[in-house]
Structure formats: structure tokens, C-alpha cells
Amino acid sequence: MKTFKKIAFTALVVVSPACGQSLVEFGAPGSAGHANGAHSGKGGAAGSAGKSGSSGRAGGGRGGTGAAGTGDTGGESGDGRGGASAVGGNAGSVALGGTVGQSGEGGEGGLGGGSGTGGAAGESGMAGAGGENGALLVVTSTNPADDDLAVALNKTVGATFNETMTLVTMTGAFTLSGPGLTPIPGVVAVVGSMATFDPDSDLAPSTTFTATISATATALSGDALANDYVWTFTTGTQAAQVLPQAAVPLGSASNFAILASAAITDIPSSLITGDVGLTPDAGSFISGFSVPASCPEVIGVMYKVDASGPACAVVNTTLLDNAKIDAGIAFINARAVVRGTPQAIAGDLNGLTLYPGLYESGSTIEISPGGFLYLDAQGDSSAVFIIRSANSITTESTSEVVLTKGARANNVYWTAGTAVTLGTSSIMKGTLLAGTAISLLTSANLEGRALNQGTLAEAITLDKNVITVPSP
Predict the structure, then answer these.
(1) pLDDT given at position 294
(2) Does domain 139-235 sit in CATH 3.40.50.2300?
(3) With 90 as the cut, is the pLDDT of residue 132 above it?
């Protein structure tokens, strides 16, 4: 939007007859000058000082100050690049006042208008587009996002701004309603640039809600929203766990895509991004990898405890011993009682959505063939999921663990009292901490780690798999 400010001037002008002009005249204001230097209208006296549009901040840097005009030509308006309107130059205060130039779109200042023939100074130039209202307060993100689904029933609604907010203006401006216009009571809080609305009670399941931040919300700087900010979301059927879980400390085991105790076998060829290690068994129990010294299947380092086994593997017993100890600590930590009471799960997890937290089955866990398990972080990329089974964990063929709304594989941990098996062409996310064996069947994909340590640990077997250590 462009803002026009008109400044009309009436002045007595005395001009030399040599210029071919009238000696004294009062006239109506001339038309506005344009960025290309258009002439002002005839008839009026020169204005004393015209300014371009009101100053403001928007986008990039501020515009410069235009030079004041002298003689018969109006001054140039400032350079308003980046959306900042500049202060235009003064029109000439002597006889022949030129029109003040119109600054260009986006804040580009135009040159002052050409001299008039005894005419009055033209209207002041227009501010660059976007610069007329000063810096704008905007909502940069919301949680839940607009049109989000399966939102937890006990969700605290949040909005992040581009400036530090004030609680006094957010209270009453941040509201929640649903279904329809039914108001939801709750408490508004502000921390820096984030504002939250915490409903007094759980939201209704499978219901669409509307969150609104009215234009009365003001930042600490005084900047306000241009319009009300409105978004909607729909709840799921369950509440999220209240107690957040801390990450499982992997220590020196965190760089390993595979860390085994008994053996590592591969049916060529798998692709492994991350380190591979075997301890305490000898290097000769690593099999199925390429003979060349480079071990092209491994984008990382393969470690062993002695000179036997693949030539590409590096002997480093100290590193392996430390990693083994840390992996054992991680297994115990993930299953520790101090983590609190887990939410019970059992059997086939196909079709379920799990929010961040601690889950446990007293028996086995599986995802049926072609099934999907959704891990929903509810917009929190640091949220931790710990899923425990007293016995085994199995993903059947073509099943998949799907990470949604900010969930990250590096924050997902699976622990099994016995074995973990990833079915043919299944897709798994997270670190596997198994008590006995870990088996990846043909073309199974793991974004995570396969770690099995302890007195009962067995082999880790591969078959044309892709394993990638997740980014931190």
C-alpha cells in the first residue's frame, strides 16, 4: 500500500521579468512530480519545503536523506531501497519551486520535479511501497501448524513472532474457540518472542479448533500486527504424555551404525553410513564385506580387536572397549525405572500414532506387513521417544515407522529384551538396543543404529541393507 501525504503551499512569488514570468501570482497547487522528474503545474507560488512520504521501517536498510533543492529545481527524495521511506529533499524556497519527486515502488527515491513556470510546488512524493507503516509485527510460526491433524488433546497452543512480545497486550488478544465459536478458557503466557495459550482442560477429541491472535497484540517495540492472525487445527483421540523423556546417552557408541559383540555378517552388498565395530569377538567373525582395503560398503571406519578379518578394518581395542561400555550403559538407561511409568502398548502397532514419551510392552511388539506406525513430535524437534519390549521387536515386510511433525530418528530409541528383526524392505527409524540378536532382512532400511551388547548378545546380520547413523 502507498500512503500519500499532501502538503499545499501558498506563497508570494516575485520573478524577474527577464524570465518571462508573471510578477506576482497566487495559484492553485500544481500536480505531484513523478520519479522521472515531471514538471509541476502552473499558477502557484513555490512551496517552502515539501517532504516525501512518512518515514518507516520495512525490509532492509533505511533510505538516505534527499538533498534540499535550491533555485528552480526541487530536491531529490532519498534512496528508499529495502522498503524504508526516505525523507525527501526540500523544494526550492525561491521563485521557481519544482515538484518534489515521487519515490519509486519499493522505496526507490525519484528525482525532484523540474522547474515550473511560476507554478506552485507540487504535492510531496509518495513513500516507497511497504514503508508507510513502519516495521511490521508478524507471526513466524505456530504450533500446531495451520490445518494440523491428530493434535494431542492436552496441547498447549503456541505462536512465535519476529519480535519480543508483551504479556499485557497478548492477554485477551490470544484466544481459542471450538467447535465453532465456542470460547475455550485458558491461560496466556509470554516468553520472549513466543506466546502460548494453555487450555484449562483437555480439548474435545476429533474436533476442529480456531486459534486467533488479534491485531491488538503489540510487541515490546510498539509494533503491532497489521491484521488478526487466524489458524485452525483438528485434535486426535488421545493426550500426550506430560513427563518429557531425556535422550538416552550413547557416549562413544553414537558414531557406530553397527556395534556387535558376537559377529557381523553381510550378504553383499549393504551400504552403511557410520562406523562398524565388533568386540570382544575376533575380526574373523566379520564376514561378507569386500576384500579391498577400502571396504566400499562402509562410509565410515570399520574397527576390530585383532589382525584377523577384513583388511579394511582398523585394530583399536580401546575405542571398541569404550564404545561397548557406553552401549551397555545406554541399554540400562533406556530401561531404567527412574524414567517413570511407561504407557502400555502391546502386539501390533500398525495404524497407531505415538506422541513423545515412554512406551512399553510386557511381551512382544510388531508392525504388521505393509503397516505404518506414526511417531508424532507435535512440532518439537527435540522430543524423545523410548519404546521398550520385554521380549522381541519385529517390523514385518514393507512396514514403516513414519516420523511426523518434527520427530527425528536421533531421538528415537527401541529396546528389546531379546531380538530385533527388521523385515524385508521395511523402514525403521531410531537406535536399536537389543539384548540378543539384530537381524536386517533383505533390503530393510534403518535410519539409526544397531547396537547389541551384553553377555547374551548374538550376531548382527545384514542382507543388502541401507543403514545410516542419523544426524544429531
Answers:
(1) 77
(2) no
(3) no
| Amino acid identity at 369 | P
**Which comes out higher in pLDDT, residue 17 or 278?**
278
Domain ranges within the chain, ordered by starting residue: 1-134, 139-235, 251-468
pTM summary value: 0.72
Taking residues 227-231, report their average pLDDT.
97
Please check the confidence at residue 3 and state whether its pLDDT lies above 50: no
HEC profile for the chain? Answer: CCCCCCCCCCCCCCCCHHHCCCCCCCCCCCCCCCCCCCECCCCCCCCCCCCCCCCCCCCCCCCCCCCCCCCCCCCCCCCCHHHCCCCCCCCCCCCCCCCCCCCCHHHCCCCCCECCCCCCCCCCCCCCCCCCCCCCECEEEEECCCCEEEECCCCCEEEEECCCECHHHHCCCEEEECCCCCECCEEEEEECCEEEEEECCCCCCCCEEEEEECCCCEECCCCEECCCEEEEEEECCCCCCCCCCCCCCCHHHCCEEEEECCCEEEECCCEEECEEEECCCCHHHEECCCCCCCCCCEECCEEECCCCCCCCCEECHHHHHHHHHHHHHHHHHHCCHHHCCCEECCEECCCCEECCEEEEECCCEEECCCCEEEEECCCCCCCCEEEEECCCEEECCCCEEEEECCCCHHHEEEEECCCEEECCCCEEEEEEEECCCEEECCCCEEEEEEEECCCCCCCEEEECCEEECCCC
Q: Residue 34: pLDDT above 80?
A: no
Average pLDDT over residues 36-47: 34
Rounded mean pLDDT of 282-297? 87
What is the average per-residue pLDDT within 129-158? 84
The tens digit of pLDDT for each residue in 351-367 reads: 999 999 999 999 999 99
**Inter-CA distances, 124 with 2, 49, 142, 268, Å:** 13, 9, 41, 77
> Cα–Cα distance between 275 and 251 in angstroms, integer?
14
CA distance 448 to 410: 7
Instruction: Return phi, psi of residue 17, to 5°.
Output: -60, -20
Tell me the C-alpha distance between 423 and 13, whole Å. Answer: 93
